[in-house]
Design goal:
By secondary structure, the protein is an all-alpha fold. The N terminus is likely disordered. Helix 3 packs across helix 4 and helix 4 crosses helix 5. It has six helices and no strands. The chain has one domain: Tandem AAA-ATPase domain (Rossmann fold).
Length: 142
């Protein structure tokens, strides 16, 4: 494959354990080749952002993405959730808090880019939200 970008740089390989490097490389393979993985191709700066998010997770640190609109924060976040699902066995539930005006976009992007994630919009009157919470947000083993 001509374009072999990986999620870690050469200088980071020595700082990380071999297992973590292999997981990140394996996750990159999912980005391109796996039916359940991310459907699409990320730009170099998006891979850097995804690597940063994974490193935050690996070190138990919280972070926030804040840059110009249209640079792929949604895809990077979905990719992180895909990584957690496929390589850490963390299937959720996860909560993405976003403006109401962007909820439809988030739902579409999750369906488009990562089929393995089950997205549920937590929106409605109190009775509808109670139903969503009690019936749809329950993690069930399949």
């Amino acid at each position: 494959m001509a374009d072999q970008r990986i999620l870690v740089s050469a200088t980071e390989v020595d700082e990380l354990g071999a297992i973590k490097v292999l997981n990140m490389i394996k996750f990159y393979e999912i980005l391109l080749n796996h039916d359940k993985g991310i459907q699409g191709k990320m730009r170099d700066y998006q891979l850097v952002g995804l690597n940063w998010l994974i490193r935050l997770y690996e070190n138990g640190i919280n972070g926030i993405q804040a840059d110009e609109m249209g640079l792929g924060k949604t895809l990077q976040t979905i990719s992180l959730l895909g990584y957690l699902h496929e390589f850490r066995g963390i299937k959720g539930p996860h909560m993405v808090v976003a403006p109401k005006s962007t909820l439809g976009k988030w739902m579409n992007e999750i369906r488009r880019f990562c089929h393995v994630l089950r997205a549920i919009k937590f929106l409605g009157n109190p009775d509808e939200r109670r139903h969503i919470r009690d019936e749809l947000l329950v993690c069930r083993e399949v």
